[in-house]
Amino acid sequence: MTKKQTLRIATYNINGINSRLPVLLRWLEEARPHVVGLQELKCTDEAFPAKDIEAFGYSAIWHGQKSWNGVALLSRVGEPVETGRGLPGDPNDEQSRYIEAAICGILIGNLYLPNGNPWPGPKFDYKLAWMDRLDAYARHLLDSGLPAMLMGDFNVIPTEQDVYKPERWAKDALFSPQAREKFKVLVAQGWTDALRSLHPDERIYTFWHYWRNSFQRDAGIRIDHLLLSPPLAEKLVKAGVDREPRGWDKTSDHAPTWIELKV
């Protein structure tokens, strides 16, 4: 813990953990978050670089999948106690998109929500069905009364404030009216969108495409979110985006997004 007794929790779509490992380890060393949720590991369980991460002081649990998806939770404030693997509601869903653990007295669900493109189509239908399952499970978490959070790459741009030139995303599943409405309903259950709650009027992005100098032009979108249950929302003191790693060599197209909680 820091001297101020705050807990820093971050979410980071790493876009291939083994190909981006130097970027991840550099960021872990410089930023020293206490807890990290990673998405898009793009590796099997056996190929997860556990020893490299442990060398930097982090314990980890992960849920991998060959070539696609994959999520992990890292902690340097105690071993993550796994409480869930795979989003409930569809026992036939084989995609590795959700992992959950108790860390420091907080129940943390780390997710990689389906992209849904091309829209319309079966991938978009899967996205909406997955969001319905998330909605049902999120209500269960809130009803428990536990200090809980849902974080990760939601692949949803909530509002026009969260996108550079909304008209360019009009036909993208991330900005579809259906996905935006489901995200709105999810948050309205009683969750706090941490970044937006502390920065209500700012244009803040967490993702920039690799092409057309999107990062240099700040032509981004906000799709990485941290949602807090009421007991955690009361402890929120800071939230932001570590933009610098997005400018590093051979980096992810996402930037780490983080919060700080009083503990």
UniProtKB/TrEMBL annotation:
<dbReference type="InterPro" id="IPR037493">
    <property type="entry name" value="ExoIII-like"/>
</dbReference>
<keyword id="KW-0460">Magnesium</keyword>
<dbReference type="InterPro" id="IPR005135">
    <property type="entry name" value="Endo/exonuclease/phosphatase"/>
</dbReference>
<keyword id="KW-0479">Metal-binding</keyword>
<dbReference type="Pfam" id="PF03372">
    <property type="entry name" value="Exo_endo_phos"/>
</dbReference>
<comment type="similarity">
    <text>Belongs to the DNA repair enzymes AP/ExoA family.</text>
</comment>
<dbReference type="InterPro" id="IPR036691">
    <property type="entry name" value="Endo/exonu/phosph_ase_sf"/>
</dbReference>
<protein>
    <submittedName>
        <fullName>Exodeoxyribonuclease III</fullName>
        <ecNumber>3.1.11.2</ecNumber>
    </submittedName>
</protein>
<dbReference type="GO" id="GO:0008311">
    <property type="term" value="F:double-stranded DNA 3'-5' DNA exonuclease activity"/>
</dbReference>
<dbReference type="InterPro" id="IPR004808">
    <property type="entry name" value="AP_endonuc_1"/>
</dbReference>
<feature type="domain" description="Endonuclease/exonuclease/phosphatase">
    <location>
        <begin position="10"/>
        <end position="254"/>
    </location>
</feature>
<keyword id="KW-0378">Hydrolase</keyword>
